[in-house]
Backbone:
């Protein structure tokens, strides 16, 4: 049994992590059942029913809201099936192993890349054999925690394709309103931003399918499941720019018509030619997301993002605008070392970029410290309290503010200036698609809003009061798809 817990946020097809885990198990002859809260709202009852004769239960989860429902379900299963092994995996358990294993309803954790580790563990459970010696596994034995050595990162070309035929894509389409298929062409990123967990999982190794495999699989999957949209969950799709262009060319040559999105870093787009970016647009790319984070080079250096330069952000905006591809620039606020001057510099420069290039939108977040990130020792010295139990991490949704240095008047000032920054960007995007009175009101608000941003003066915010009366300012967008999200929403597959 594999379970994907509920989360807040728009689904992007069947949960890809579970489909990847299921594939080796199916090849080995196991019968795999998958329960996804998104299409099984009564998931607790379904899990109790389906685990009656199961070998084990596997649960994949992220830090944040997923944890609460996971703990509740795991407790219920432990009570009803005390002998059933319950195995956790995914980002959070892999980054907080000891703490997660202290919970009485967790028997083992599959750390990091999990396909082969889980397969070996399930085989041992089915055969009644010892769990010792399984690389990448942590487990409890006689009250003690055992950590087996790390499993070397497996080349994803050596792993079977995700088990897309395990789910009914029509059910997902009926619920979401679009036939979509989550897909990944690569894992890993060569950079080591010190707020990011990716390097902990993949050791800065870019691990990618060949362009030929990607095109061949999409040529099979898109028509077979009548797919209209393929969100690609690569950490940094454009690391190998030549491969990316070959994928685009292959999709064009296939004559398949579907839209696809991806995330990347601006330095790679900046090195591409205008023609290559245009080619990606012609192949169906309808959105790109970028972790720009700040327009202050000093703050980028604090983040260990020295590879990213302001001129690359500008060039990325220009090239994607020329190709007609909407983009989202993510912004991290409140990072250690950032000052009010740094923030206002980011707001001014980002506003200038968006004024020149109307395809640019923004998704700002207050810095959220997740377990295992390289900067945690520094954060503890600065007074950030690390959650003391698995379930305390539930409240740490993206954008939740636990930063002691960003409170009170400074936090209020940040939120006010952020609202003006986002309102200014939204005003510029006044289009014929909105009613004329809202369009004209946006234009009337434009000059005073730009004046406030330029002068950093936000007292008596009458423009915000007026704008709130007619529409809501979008404060958060999906980095992958660009669609508006609720505050605190997880961006997961």
Residues:
């Amino acid at each position: 049994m594999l379970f994907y817990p509920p989360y807040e946020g728009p689904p992007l097809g069947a949960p890809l992590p579970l489909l990847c885990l299921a594939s080796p198990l199916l090849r080995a002859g196991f019968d795999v059942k998958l329960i996804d809260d998104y299409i099984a709202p009564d998931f607790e009852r379904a899990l109790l029913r389906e685990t009656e004769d199961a070998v084990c239960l596997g649960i994949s989860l992220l830090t944040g809201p997923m944890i609460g429902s996971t703990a509740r379900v795991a407790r219920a299963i432990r009570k009803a099936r005390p002998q059933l092994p319950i195995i956790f995996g995914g980002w959070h358990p892999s980054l907080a192993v000891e703490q997660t294993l202290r919970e009485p309803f967790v028997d083992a954790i599959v750390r990091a890349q999990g396909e082969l580790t889980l397969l070996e563990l399930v085989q041992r459970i089915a055969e009644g054999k010892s769990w010792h010696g399984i690389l990448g596994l942590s487990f409890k034995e006689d009250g003690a925690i055992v950590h087996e050595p790390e499993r070397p990162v497996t080349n994803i070309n050596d792993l079977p394709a995700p088990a897309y035929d395990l789910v009914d894509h029509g059910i997902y389409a009926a619920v979401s309103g679009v036939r979509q298929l989550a897909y990944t062409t690569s894992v890993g990123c060569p950079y080591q931003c010190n707020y990011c967990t990716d390097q902990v999982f993949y050791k800065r190794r870019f691990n990618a399918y060949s362009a030929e495999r990607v095109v061949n699989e999409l040529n099979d999957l898109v028509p077979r499941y009548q797919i209209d949209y393929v969100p690609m969950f690569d950490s940094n799709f454009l690391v190998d720019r030549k491969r990316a262009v070959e994928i685009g060319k292959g999709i064009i040559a296939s004559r398949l018509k579907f839209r696809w999105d991806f995330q990347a870093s601006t330095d790679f787009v900046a090195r591409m030619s205008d023609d290559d970016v245009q080619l990606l647009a012609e192949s169906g790319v309808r959105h790109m997301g970028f972790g720009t984070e700040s327009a202050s080079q000093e703050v980028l250096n604090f983040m260990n993002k020295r590879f990213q330069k302001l001129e690359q952000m500008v060039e990325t905006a220009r090239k994607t605008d020329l190709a007609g591809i909407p983009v989202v620039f993510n912004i991290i606020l409140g990072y250690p070392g950032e000052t009010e001057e740094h923030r206002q510099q980011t707001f001014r420069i980002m506003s200038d970029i968006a004024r020149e290039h109307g395809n640019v939108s923004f998704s700002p977040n207050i810095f959220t410290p997740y377990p295992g990130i390289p900067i945690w020792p520094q954060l503890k010295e600065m007074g950030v309290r690390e959650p003391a139990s698995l379930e305390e991490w539930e409240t740490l949704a993206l954008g939740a503010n636990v930063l002691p240095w960003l409170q009170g008047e400074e936090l209020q000032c940040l939120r006010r200036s952020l609202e003006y920054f986002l309102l200014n960007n939204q005003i510029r995007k006044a289009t014929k698609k909105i009613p004329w009175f809202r369009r004209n009101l946006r234009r009337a608000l434009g000059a005073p809003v730009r004046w406030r941003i330029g002068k950093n003066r936000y007292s008596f915010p009458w423009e915000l009061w007026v704008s709130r009366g007619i529409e809501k300012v979008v404060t958060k967008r999906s980095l992958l798809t660009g669609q508006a999200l609720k505050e605190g929403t997880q961006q997961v597959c």
User: Anything to note?
Assistant: Residues 178-367+403-468 form a domain with the pyruvate-formate lyase- activating enzyme fold (CATH 3.80.30.20). The mean pLDDT is 91. The CA atoms of residues 64 and 397 lie 5 Å apart.
